[in-house]
Task: inverse folding
């Protein structure tokens, strides 16, 4: 039995995924497969590190130690073949607020910022709440796989005088792992026109062979001068509630600008337990992660094979990275509101594709980072939903 097969009760623990069902969906008696967190316990080394810190009993202001920085340097080298310097690192409690800080530091109110929908919806919020102009360069759906529209990107940069491009790498919700060639082409365009790239790489550790994540700032050309890379152990090791993330910024001028934003916000350190968990995860989490990736891949395969055999009205976009599966439901001919209700009536809560922006209409996102028994239950509920309208 895999360690990931254990079904752990999360109701009553203030878990957004389980305890917010009534508030978000209007009903509680559904299987939650919407929020992007795992239903797996963190690695033992992480749990032990948190327990050790908690046992100390004094929880005063805590610095991020050099040992934590070194654990990230080592992790990036081993997992992503990217040699970074610990001086390049800044820390924040999450990737989303780091996107906001980068927007504030590197652009001005009214400047255009480009995103690629359908994409993680907080990107839209960070642009608009910082009073920048949100510009869409919609991904192309070709042969059930997303591609960047490079001609459109460059045209939007020129016509909108864009100052920043926010990249989701690997892509959420579609699961694309962008190739070195794709990233190089994108970076060349942005370099040509003086556009900063902020790359959300929070799913980068969850890629599967033969796909390999390439940090855009690691490319041989001098793209690191205008890129900001955002990482966190939160998706990789299910640590989102401990709120610890890092920014990798090789360019000292860019890094200083973002540091000044953090200073204005009064942010200067992380949660003590989050620091301990982050370091333990990056230092000792390799074996756990390898097992998790294999387990999640088997869950992905279960969804794909079941849908193809039992629910041919739906089409699964097989992810190259992450534990999120993007499902095309457009053949059902339902509105997004009707789709959500259809699956809820069958007892499953999924991510509604429309919230990920243009191109997401008619899709649903399912999180398979949970025990296989729950994945099996989930696809059977999806079949029940589709069968009900035949």
Result:
């Amino acid at each position: 039995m895999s360690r990931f097969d254990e079904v752990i009760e999360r109701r009553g623990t203030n878990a957004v995924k389980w305890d917010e069902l009534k508030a978000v969906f209007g009903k509680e008696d559904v299987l939650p497969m919407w929020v992007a967190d795992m239903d797996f316990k963190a690695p033992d080394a992480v749990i032990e590190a948190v327990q050790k810190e908690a046992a100390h009993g004094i929880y005063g202001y805590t610095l991020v130690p050099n040992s934590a920085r070194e654990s990230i340097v080592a992790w990036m080298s081993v997992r992503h073949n990217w040699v970074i310097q610990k001086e390049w690192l800044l820390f924040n409690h999450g990737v989303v607020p780091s996107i906001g800080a980068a927007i504030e530091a590197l652009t001005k109110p009214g400047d255009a910022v480009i995103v690629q929908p359908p994409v993680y919806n907080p990107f839209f919020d960070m642009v608009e709440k910082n009073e920048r102009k949100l510009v869409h360069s919609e991904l192309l759906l070709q042969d059930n796989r997303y591609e960047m529209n490079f001609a459109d990107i460059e045209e939007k940069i020129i016509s909108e005088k864009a100052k920043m491009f926010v990249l989701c790498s690997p892509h959420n919700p579609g699961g694309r792992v962008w190739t070195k060639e794709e990233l190089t082409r994108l970076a060349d365009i942005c370099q040509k026109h003086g556009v900063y790239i902020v790359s959300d790489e929070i799913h980068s550790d969850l890629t599967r062979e033969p796909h390999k994540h390439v940090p855009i700032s690691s490319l041989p050309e001098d793209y690191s001068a205008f890129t900001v890379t955002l990482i966190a152990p939160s998706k990789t090791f299910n640590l989102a509630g401990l709120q610890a993330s890092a920014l990798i910024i090789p360019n000292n001028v860019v890094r200083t600008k973002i540091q000044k934003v953090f200073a204005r916000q009064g942010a200067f350190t992380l949660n003590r337990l989050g620091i301990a968990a982050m370091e333990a995860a990056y230092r000792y989490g390799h074996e756990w992660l390898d097992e998790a990736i294999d387990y999640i891949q088997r869950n992905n395969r279960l969804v794909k094979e079941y849908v193809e055999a039992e629910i041919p009205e739906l089409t699964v976009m097989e992810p190259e990275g992450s534990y999120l599966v993007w499902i095309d439901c457009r053949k059902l001919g339902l509105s997004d509101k009707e789709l959500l209700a259809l699956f809820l009536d069958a007892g499953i809560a999924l991510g509604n594709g429309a919230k990920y922006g243009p191109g997401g209409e008619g899709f649903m996102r399912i999180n398979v980072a949970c025990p296989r028994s729950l994945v099996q239950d989930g696809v059977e509920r999806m079949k029940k939903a589709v069968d009900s309208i035949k």
Remarks:
- The chain has a mean pLDDT of 97.
